[in-house]
Amino acid sequence: MTSSAITLTLREYNGIQIPQRPDGYINATKMCQAFGKEWGGFHRQAKKPETQLGKYLSALEVNLQICRDSLISSESGRFGETWVHPKIAIRLAQWLSPEFAVIVDGWVEDIIRGKQPTANQPTVPSLPSSEERLRTIRFGMDLLQELGGIDDRTRLALQDLTRNILLEDRLKQPALSGGERFEWNISDRLAHLGYRAKSGDLTRIGKVAAQLYRTRHGKNPPKREQYVGGTTRMVNCYSSADLDILDEAISDVLGAVHQT
């Protein structure tokens, strides 16, 4: 199926557009953004088998015969987002707000009944294919060269974007190792979650995240060249498989500030 054949239903709540796929899966990242909350807070509870939520997800896996990675799907890319099964979307909505949970119930029922979106819930095409996006990057690079060349900042940005697209394409293939997943640095993750951190906060988050990574893997996190503060630097990066480490470090350092 081509990307142009897939459409998303755009829901809206608290001024945030929340996409829903034809299979009923809902964008959990946007659901949380509508309430100024983070997906990581809900996900940490879901990963603990002793919690009610953890027990529910385990039972759901058995009942639906669907693995956890299929019930909760994380996209790759700089602004990769999380999509969840309709039943989990309802649970997430209950965690966010009782009123919102009632609305999400209706969204799920619409998909089950095959109801078409209304005028204020438009459909939009999904992202172009990886081939189309890579061709666009190549065209842009050629054009920039004609206009006088590519500076370091632009070169790194294009390299990063190209790598993300290539990895995103490979993530759709089976048996992909965790080391090949998309990587986040701290600054990008903070911006994605809506934080405005000071330099000292970045340092503290980096130390906490690095320690958590060493505890899990027995080695330091990998470093990548990034454009930071007007120059190129080597910064720690974390794969999607270790995104919980980064989110936990951010929450530990900034959680109290973010909640006030």
Short summary:
This protein starts with 6 loop residues before the first strand and ends with a helix. It has a 3-stranded antiparallel beta sheet with strand order 2-1-6. A 3-stranded antiparallel beta sheet has the order 3-5-4. It has 3 domains: 7-125, Mlu1-box Binding Protein, DNA-binding Domain (Roll), CATH 3.10.260; 128-176; 183-260, no CATH class.
Walkthrough of the structure:
By secondary structure, the protein is of the alpha+beta class. It folds into three domains: 7-125, Mlu1-box Binding Protein, DNA-binding Domain; 128-176; 183-260, no CATH class. It is built from eleven helices and nine strands. The protein has helices at residues 28-33, 39-46, 52-64, 68-71, 86-96, 98-113, 130-146, 152-171, 186-193, 199-217, 243-259; strands at 7-13, 16-20, 26-27, 72-74, 82-84, 123-125, 183-185, 223-228, 231-239. The strands form three sheets. The chain has a three-stranded antiparallel sheet. A three-stranded antiparallel sheet has the order 3-5-4. A hairpin with a 7-residue loop joins strand 4 (72-74) and strand 5. The longest helix is centred in the middle third of the chain and has 20 residues, at 152-171. It is globular, with a radius of gyration of 20 Å.
